[in-house]
Every structure is written in C-alpha cells, then in structure tokens.
Amino acid sequence: MLANFNFRIIFEYLPLFLTGLKYTFIIAIVSLALALIVGIIACACRISGIKVLKYPAIAYIEIIRSTPLLVQIYFFYFGLPTLGITVPEIQTGIFALMLNSGAYIAEIIRAGINSVDAGQIEAGHASGLNYIQRMRFIILPQALGVTIPPLLGQAIVLVKDTALLSLISVMELTRSGQTMTSERFMPSEAFLTVAFFYMVIYFCLKPLADWSQKKLIFREAY
Amino acid sequence: MMSFYFGRLVEIFPFFLTGLWMTVKIAFLSLIICTILGFILGMMRASHNIFLKRIIGFYVAFARGTPFVVQIFIVFFIFPEWGLQLDAFPAAIVAMAIMGSAFVCEIVASGISSISKGQWEAAASSGLSKLQQLRLVIVPQSLKVIVPPLVGQYVLLIKDTSVVSVIGVTELTRVGWVTVIRIPEGLMVFALVGILYFMISYPLILLSNYLEKKMTV
Questions:
Q1: Average of per-residue pLDDT values in chain A
Q2: Residue A105 CB partners (closer than 8 Å, separation 6+)
C-alpha cells in the first residue's frame, strides 16, 4: 500500500510545506482574532433590545449559518471585483473566514450568557446595578468560563476551514500539497503529509479544549 | 449591464435546479450512510473493548482533525494508487461517509455514555445479551440526547457537500462556479447559490433548535 512511499521527495518539498503551514497559522490566528471582535459585536446587537440592531444581527447569523463557507468565499472572491474592490486573495479569504466564524462565535457567546442563572441577574437588579454593571460584574465573568471550551472547538474548526482558501489560490498548507501534486504527480506523498501537519495542529488544540471542558465541569461541581 | 446578466441568469436557472438536485442526492445518500455507520461505530466506541476503542478513536481523530478538502483529495487521488478507482460521484459519497460517520459516531458515543450504569446492569440482569441491551434499553433512552445534535450535524454535513465541487461533481456550488465564468456577476450568482442552500438548511436549523428546546428537560 505504502511500499513505494517516497520520503526523499517530502524532504525536498519541506520548505514549501513549512511556508504553507506558516500561512495557515497566520490566516487562522488573524481571522480568529477578527472573528472574536465580530462575534462579540454581533452578539451584543443580538441580545440588545434595540430592533434596528437586533434584526440585522439575527439575519447575519442565520444567513451565515445556513450557507456553506465555500459559497461565502466564492461570493466575496468573485463578487468583490464586480464592486470595483480588488484585494489580494488572502485578504478576501480572511474576510470570509472572519464573517463565517464571527456568526458561530456570536452564538457561542450568546449561549454562554444565557447559561447564567436568572436569579443572578435579579440579584444584580436588587443590588442596584445598572445594565452595564450587571454585564461586567455578574454575567460576563460567569459566562466567560462556559464559552471557552466551545471557542476552542471553533478554533479547531477554523484551522480546518482555512484549507478551503486553497481553492481561491491562497498559498497555505493544502495549496502546497496541490502544488507538489501538480509538479511531481505524487498525491500520496503530498496529501498524506498535508494531513499529517493538520493532525499535529489538531492534537495540540484538542487536548486543550478537552482540558478546559474538564476544568469547567470541575468548577461547576462547587 | 446588471439587468442583462440578470436575464441570462433567469434563462439558465434550470441548470441551478439540476445542481440543487445533485446536492440533495449527495446529501441524502451520504446522510443515510453516515447515520448507519455512525451508529454502529458509536456503539462499538462505547463498548469496553480497548482495541476497538483505540482504532475508532484514531479514525475519528483523522476525520475530525483534517480538513474535508484534504480528505476528498485523499479519496479521489490516493485511493486509485491503492487500487480503488472511483468516479467523482461515488468518491464524493465515500468521502462524505468517511467524514460524516466519524462525527455521528462521536455524538452517538457521548449519548450512550450519558446513560447511567444502573440501566446497563438492570438490562444485564434481565438476561439480555450485550446487543439486546444496546438495542432495547440503552439506545432508545440515549436518542433523547443524540437527536438534537444529530440534526445540527446534518446541517453541517449538507453544507460540507459544497466542498465536493472540487473534484468536479456538478452540484450547486460547482454550478455557481461554472456560471460565474460566463456571467461575471459574482455577487448575483453566488447569492442565488446561497439562497438555494438556505432553502435546504434553514428548515433543518429551525428543526434542530426546536428539538433542542423540546428534548432538554
């Protein structure tokens, strides 16, 4: 099956894979940071009582969640130039990933805020705290712990999602595999190496997510 | 110019419908396979056989740890080297089955492990065999925990079918990709593609929300 697996060629192409890996990291980290900002804003609009903010936020979240990421990427990739906006593919890709993950993160944060017991909020009312103070001192500190495990889960998903940017010719990890396949026609070597690198990232993030989950359950036991 | 392209788009709308039909076909077939395989694997994973657990654990880690695009490339480009030549459509189904059954397996396994030990013991002391215990006692109870996230997973899987366009299956995303070359109005073409996806997955999202509310007591 893998009898004639050629390791030499992988070492020859290692610089290419490492560049790909570097870009995968950069794209994932930048879009995660931006998605957190978008998610927090979208969630704040979603749970606010103001209709002008609430309904657009709901529409944004639901539209993103019910269409595939690939379609969103193509939408911006093919759509932005028709509006006269020409930016490098990598920026289009990060923009699409940001909007996509932002919607999921908004839902994660909302679930965290909803998980805070109603009695806590009433207690905040009774102590004479206003909305912002209640958010800051009572709801958010408690919600934060609940949101961390799913946020790490979303980070894992986001790393995998960056692979789709290879389809709009962003030079990341999957694209380096495609490049090697087209130059040498050795798909086994190329894509198994790519899969190996993704697995390494996964095995770094997954224990972290599991650990945070465990910590949380432990804390809730008190 | 815009209205001209809009007219063209209306003209070739039947093409989009064939793409939609292909997406539905792939989604339907692979969801059935994923569910069956996922339940079998999930029950095996919840068993106490360490060897089985390890193998399935590794399989699940592979399916969840690597992007779906890479998995499709592995199925489509590497399987032939190992002697399994597949056309685009079967390759898409196989890749979806490999990826989806791992996710379903995790949901089923965690559902089964949420059932208290006493139920297993009671079933065992009623003289049921291991398989009967699972089939008659454990799985029916755990369905309550399994079904809401399962429907949510279905939505994700349906959306993932868009990725099989990379190996040339003419489904909805591929149709959009082919069209945008002829009709260079990216926003319009992919908005239409998005609306068609929305029509399939939004009802399922609503169903999943409803089930989640109803089944968590």
A1: 89
A2: A35, A36, A38, A39, A40, A43, A151, A154
CATH number at residue A43: 1.10.3720.10
Question: What pTM was estimated for this model as a whole?
Answer: 0.90
Q: Is residue A163 part of a domain?
A: yes
Q: Which residue has the tokens 């639901």?
A: A62
Asked if ipTM goes beyond 0.85, one says yes
Residues in chain B closer than 8 A to A70 (CB atoms): 162-163, 165, 173
CB-based contact A58:A46 (threshold 8 Å): yes
Give the pLDDT confidence of A5-56 residue by residue, as tens digits: 778 888 888 999 999 999 999 999 999 999 999 999 999 999 888 889 999 9
Q: What is the pLDDT of residues A107-116, one digit of tens each?
A: 999 988 888 8
Q: At what angle do helices B139-160 and B13-45 cross, to 10 degrees?
A: 140
CB spacing of B186 vs A166 below 8 angstroms: no
Contacts of B186 (CB under 8 A, 6+ apart): A74, A75, A77, A78, A79, A80, A81, A82, B180
The answer to whether position A34 is within a domain reads yes
Domains present along chain B, CATH in parentheses? 2-215 (1.10.3720.10)
Interface test with A, best of B9, B58, B69 (most A CBs within 10 A): B69
